[in-house]
Amino acid sequence: MATKAYQRTYTQLQAITKATVTLNARGVANDELATVNGKLAQVVKTKGDAVTLQVFSGTEGVPTNAEVSFQGAPPTLRVSDQLSGRFFNAYGHPIDGGPEIEGEEREVGGPSVNPYKRRQPSELIPTGIAGIDLNNTLVSGQKIPFFADPDQPYNRVMADVALRADVDKIILGGMGLTNDDYLFFRHAFESAGALDKIVSFVNTTEEPPVERLLIPDMALAAAEYFAVDKNEKVLVLLTDMTLYADALSIVSNRMDQIPSKDSMPGSLYSDLAKIYEKAVQLPDGGSITIIAVTTLNDGDITHAIPDNTGYITEGQLFLRADPDSGKVIVDPFRSLSRLKQLVQGKKTREDHAQLMNAGVRLYADAQNAKTKLENGFDLSDYDLRCLDYAKEYATRLLSIDVNITVEQMLDTAWEIFAKYFSPAETGIKQVFVDKYWKKD
Amino acid sequence: MSTHGKVTGIVSNLVTVTVDGPVAENELCYISVGGNQLLAEVIRVTGDKASVQVFESTRGLKNGDSVEFLGKMLEVTLGPGLLSGIYDGLQNNLTTMTGVFLKRGEYTDPLDRKVLWAFTPLAQPGDKVIAADWLGEVKEGWLPHKIMVPFSFKGEFTVKSVAPAGNYTVDETIAVLTDKDGEDIPVTMVQKWPVKVAVKCYKEKPRPTRIMETGVRVIDTFNPIAEGGTGFIPGPFGCGKTVLQHAIAKQGDADVIVMAACGERANEVVEIFTEFPELVDPHTGRKLMERTTIICNTSNMPVAAREASVYTAMTICEYYRAMGLKCLLLADSTSRWAQALREMSNRMEELPGQDAFPVDLSAIISNFYARAGMVLLNNGQTGAVTFIGQEGRPLLLRPRAEPRRPEALPGRQPDRLLLQIPRVSRDPGIPAGKDPEELG
């Protein structure tokens, strides 16, 4: 941090907690940055002359006579095309050994887009995964999280999605990534030869948790640069938002704030919304799409973090292990893309929506059949066919290791339907049956 | 002389101000920061310290910044031109704002002051009138928009003069009233009213007697709602609450529809912006947008403005009700509103109630629901505000139980209709909220 002429320096701390320090200072602005013995900190509360700072890297070793200098500005990121292909820490400093970025300094966590100036999202984002493209189609400008237990391979799925998506830039915001996950992303991007369109901001589990709070704002400031200034299609990956929310609760707890539901801060909804609502289809063609990960505790979506997330995002993608097919699948019942109807049958083939509904309904019938089986009831011929169908449907379409085009997904669905059912049993409109039904 | 103050404490959007004179609960003030004026509302006073919630980002705000109190509560501007308007929670016109991003401290006029309205007088000189009596009317779209004695006028007045039929702007004097002290008061087409106070300029509130057709068969046949009744749609996210509300908005038998997107997803609001101008009202054959006002406070806009948005919407409905019109208010969603209340209560360090909601949540929501209803106007005509709110519950939780979320409970007391969407509609992959007959 360059020393500036107007910098004010203090050397008397009044209080220190694990995440915050409090001191008496005047003329301090809300959200302003400061350094505490060289550690970056941000103003989170003022009360009279008492100013509370959250110290991003933790307060270990900070003495009461620490030198506190105020920077006079909120967090910023230098933006330019030089960002492409680079890896940064939570402060926007390179961690890949390369030079610092030259460019315009932009405030992070800036204002919202006027909802009236937005455009309706309408471009398909193909991922190759049928559990997503067929049943929960993604649209540019959408924001959607993966809900997954920590043992699900969500980071792998996300890397696959990112590399297959037809976008101009991919921004990775990694919060509390294990070093292994970080290296996985780095390797995946490098070996795909896609590094030049990827910008990464990474906080690993080795680093202090409070630093994570900067990651989404940094990643989205970079995304806005490419989407607004360059009219590019930008995909932002945020993993893992549960760890981000945990960091919020650490700070509010250290500030003695009264905890809200599940010991999260009362402002959780607004804090998450500020991030997710950066997803936008801009009038001049640029867009920001956000795919996030919210890890769950044993599938519990009633916890404050997934619950609040669900009210902000446009659907959710639920990953789970399917014991019948032995695959990890995108759960068709609990997943939902709220924007899918904007592209299904419009940017994809006309029979898309019908096939999706039929496929999921028959899969539900298979679940009923399974319940009957487990309770010792006799199974009808239809039940048995449903069970076989479910296994094949899960393996060939729902599984996350599928990588085919949307056209192939639709053809595969027709093929599986024809194998186990009559046209009437699928309930698909006759016009589509006449046109697409796979006859022997 | 108006009261002034200085900022002495900041935590997020809750600011403490030391004041030099009297302040009122819910009084508005402007905080000056870097050439911008930020609007805020008093929510607590302790000694000479007022806690104010700021309707904007408080980034860069400093202790010592000056505050000017306005001596009035949050008001809406009422007059011809509200219909087809798109406003934020504080009734700023979103369509006339410049730039793609919302600028802090930019407040736009809700009414177009230049438009000429064709005025027809209804009152005669010498008539005795009281608040909300009709003085004349203009055509707003196809609706007769009554120009009324402002709601804030107390006591009886004598009409001294009424402007002759002709074209006037909203700010021109269209009548002069004489109060009982003989003083002349000019009246224009515009009046203001504080949003948190119910408009009670009517004779009585009888029991609703007519059915309001929603156009949704399953509601009108089995669970019809009364004109002036209240209802709410509980359900987990993704079950189709918004889809159902949009269906009601499109087909409901009402003269005026106000949609309050309270803490909603911006992309869903964009869907309304994109769809509604194209849709035709089945009752009149005119464009749906001509009878619709949208109050749009998306989830990333400041939390205090989210709380204000439902009140702004309700006040606009009450205004049109006083013209003898049938109004329908759709609020999506009241649970996000409750979350806003929770967030502010948490910031003020109030002891939390159930699920960390403020303990008076139930009273606040009941009061709000009670502002709906059919009324008998002073001139013997009737008007109605029908209110349908939405309450969220977590996905797949307590599938068939009664709504147990605290923000859902109070709604049950004052309302007369419960539109519960069963969980089962999610399971077979049927797009929930759709009429089953449309499927297949």
Question: How is this structure best described in words?
Answer:
The complex is a heterodimer of chains A (about 450) and B (about 450). Chain A contains 12 helices and 21 strands. Chain A has about 450 residues and is an alpha/beta fold. Chain A folds into 3 domains: about 10-70, Elongation Factor Tu (Ef-tu), domain 3 (Beta Barrel); about 75-340, Rossmann fold; about 350-435, no CATH class. In chain A, strands 9, 13, 14, 15, 16, 17, 18, 19, 20 and 21 form a 10-stranded mixed beta sheet that branches. Chain A has a 7-stranded antiparallel beta sheet with strand order 1-7-4-5-6-3-2, with no helix packed on it. Chain A has a two-stranded antiparallel sheet with strand order 8-10. Chain A is elongated. The model of chain A has no long low-confidence stretch (mean pLDDT about 90). By secondary structure, chain B is of the alpha+beta class. Chain B folds into 3 domains: about 5-75, Thrombin, subunit H; about 75-105 and about 200-440, 3-Layer(aba) Sandwich (Rossmann fold), CATH 3.40.50.300; about 115-190, RNA polymerase II/Efflux pump adaptor protein, barrel-sandwich hybrid domain (OB fold (Dihydrolipoamide Acetyltransferase, E2P)), CATH 2.40.50.100. Chain B contains 7 helices and 26 strands. Chain B has helices spanning about 215-220, 240-250, 265-275, 305-320, 335-345, 360-370, 410; strands spanning about 5-10, 15-20, 25-35, 35-45, 50-55, 65-75, 75-80, 85, 115-120, 130, 135-140, 145-150, 155-160, 165-170, 175-180, 185, 190-195, 210, 225, 230-235, 255-265, 290-300, 325-330, 375, 380-395, 415-420. In chain B, α4 crosses α5 (about 335-345). Mean pLDDT of chain B is about 85; it is low at about 395-415 and about 420-440. Chains A and B meet through β5, α6, β17, α7 and α8 of A and β1, α3 and α5 of B. β5 of chain A pairs antiparallel with β1 (about 5-10) of chain B, so a sheet runs across the interface.
